[in-house]
Amino acid sequence: MKQAHSGAARGRGERALLDEIRQRAAGASRAGLRLGIGDDCALLAPRRGEELAVTTDLSIAGRHFRLDWHQPEAVGHRALARGLSDLAAMGARPVAAFLSLGLPRELTVATGRRPAWVERFLDGLLALAKLHNTPLAGGDLAESPLAVADIVLVGAVPRGRAMLRSGAKAGELLYVTGALGGAAAGLARLAELAEAQHGRANPPRIPKKLAAQLAPHLYPQPRIAQGLWLRRRGLATAALDLSDGLSTDLGHLCTESGVSAEVDAARLPLHPAATQAQALHGGEDYELLFTASATARVPCSIAGVKITRIGRIVKLRRGQPAVTLLTPQGPQPLAPHGWEHFS
Amino acid sequence: MKQAHSGAARGRGERALLDEIRQRAAGASRAGLRLGIGDDCALLAPRRGEELAVTTDLSIAGRHFRLDWHQPEAVGHRALARGLSDLAAMGARPVAAFLSLGLPRELTVATGRRPAWVERFLDGLLALAKLHNTPLAGGDLAESPLAVADIVLVGAVPRGRAMLRSGAKAGELLYVTGALGGAAAGLARLAELAEAQHGRANPPRIPKKLAAQLAPHLYPQPRIAQGLWLRRRGLATAALDLSDGLSTDLGHLCTESGVSAEVDAARLPLHPAATQAQALHGGEDYELLFTASATARVPCSIAGVKITRIGRIVKLRRGQPAVTLLTPQGPQPLAPHGWEHFS
After folding, report:
1. What mean pLDDT is predicted for residues B9-24?
2. How far, in whole angstroms, is CA B168 from its chain's centroid?
């Protein structure tokens, strides 16, 4: 993290914040990180024969999160989870994260004995970073009327071995990690809680009995271990992460691979709290969707997470929807219809 | 650039914009870029023995630029120039750029025969990217009430050879590329032009005779060639780029190196339109500041840009200002006092 540029919040608050981020980031694992926060750039040293995977994800207040709905720890967790999930989808190991953060001044100031919003945001972000041995290596900091956080993840993967969206072929089978629809169901529950408190500015306290139900939305777990396992075994012919919802993301996989797909409705691993529509169209589950040869021996679980076969890849059917849902009432076109926040 | 996540602008406009960015980016040089826009991550392949330099720079409307002051081409150019300048300061060659863009819907829509703001922003960004053989390899896109652009630059440098802020030693001499204060002087002139048109929403047209005077502010040239030259010759013991202004940035160099510095006021290479205060404190010149041994043979110009010796590094003087300005009236402490936009 460089000294913030012109236009950023200046004075003691900003310097103190920069110093604190630098100090907190310095404690993390630094394998592959030659130089972290404090110079013009960070320096990353990939191992011999590796290439670098890079992804950026923008989180904007009122779009990707709401200050009156989401605890700051969850905002930090979710911002990083999105980027880690992109690395998982390529089968890359995380090397470093970068954070560009624009914040209203009041979010950087402690109120009474309550730590500043930004401190709690960093708590959530750095806890997940630690879990995945991902040092915060740099970024930028600016004062902004709107809270925005752009997360950049850099990962490494042996050259030519990354799992791409473009490798699926007709005849292959379609798999998904974990359960689907939990994030959408959790968001719906969070919206009810928030509305019940009638426009208070602070996010609702989550009753203990609801924590598990809201976790898929508030604290999604990127499938890094599962992505690494699949890539090392060479099992997946194509992969991506479910950020926009199965109907939308499977459409991307089909487009990039030049194929069509069939999904068996009866096989969908619904989250216990989720409807079928949430499992099909609800975004932000951050599970992995992948394809494998019909003869591949795909296990029932990888690193403790269930793997479910949900369908198959078929030849491209021009002029027809890329994805078909097989139901007891017969096949139905499954048009992309990803979840929209707060709509 | 992935498909935009939930919460982004949806529908034809967004898909069309993503497709257009992908198409425009595909035309660029792709050395070192194994996989660009369209998958979960981009894949970069550094050469053997190289490490990667990574930097992010946030540009926020009303902070780093103004929609009613700056032509969109200049906003795009300046956003990329900030990142390229960080690579220049390390002596890194650019490998790829990433763009996370949050925009109000109206900035993505053409009005009559006028192309959309975002098209012209990309014109400016991609023209500078082409000049420096830097492909746009990915990013993110979202609808946002406030225009924000986070630029990520990835560069490559032979392992252990990057120019750092921390290498300066007492007795070394202090150099700067180009001229100082031109960006601050240009911004002041732009503010006059904008104010003369009394609150119109569109940025002022720049009269031809003023184009050269405003160029250091609107179209700063990152010193990539000079940074590469210095790094290859091993001449610079420390380096950074002047983004916050000489008084602030030289302070950073002193802090990171554990030294103090003296600047000869009479030697400062003032831009013809700039005052001494603008040269000392005006930010965004994006010139390189570097140190070299007193016995090093530093040329008068590198790749067509003038090099000026402006002072020297001295032992750390605890309890005193890190930087001293030597003037005809005697030495004066030079406190950090970087430029603030629009203040």
Report:
1. 68
2. 22
Residue A309 burial (CB count, 10 A): 15
Beta bridge partners of B203: none
How far is B44 from B35, CA to CA, in rounded Å?
A: 7
DSSP H helices in B57-201: 72-90, 117-131, 182-196
What is the SS3 assignment for B146?
coil
B162: Cβ–Cβ under 8 A, 6 or more apart, which residues? A35, A41, A43, B51, B53, B90, B91, B92, B231
Alpha-carbon Rg for chain A, nearest whole angstrom, is 21
Closest to B283 in 3D by CA, of B323, B247, B254, B327: B247
Q: How far apart are CA A64 and CA A68, in angstroms?
A: 12
Q: Is the pLDDT of residue B35 over 80?
A: yes
State how far the Cα of B73 lies from the Cα of B125, in Å rounded to an integer: 7
Domains defined for chain A, CATH in brackets: 12-158 (3.30.1330.10), 173-333 (3.90.650.10)
Structure token digits, residue A217: 């939305």
Please indicate whether, in this complex, the C-beta atoms of B53 and A64 are within 8 angstroms of each other.
no
Rounded Cα gap, residues A106 and A122, in angstroms? 16
Residue B297's CB: how many other CB atoms inside 10 A?
Answer: 8
Residue type at B29 in one-letter notation: S
Tokens of B5: 């996540």
Q: Could you say which of B45, B139, B146 has the minimum Cβ distance to residue A51? A: B45
pLDDT tens column, B74-110: 999 999 999 999 999 999 999 999 999 999 999 998 8
**Full 3-state SS string of A88-133:** HHHCCEEEEEEEEEEECHHHHCCECCECCHHHHHHHHHHHHHHHCC
Nearest chain A residue to B145 by CA distance is: A146
Name the one residue in this structure whose structure tokens are 């490494």: A156
Count of CB atoms within 10 A of residue B308's CB? 18
Nearest CA to A183 among A220, A211, A238? Answer: A220
* Chain B nearest CA to A62, separation (Å): 8
Residues of chain B numbered 178-207 and touching chain A (CB < 8 Å): none
Interfacial A residues in 233-292 facing B (CB < 8 Å): 240-241, 243-245, 248-249, 252, 256, 283-284
Residues 6+ apart with CB under 8 A from A310: A174, A175, A176, A263, A264, A267, A268, A269
Please write the tens of the pLDDT for every residue from A18-40.
Answer: 778 888 887 666 778 888 888 88
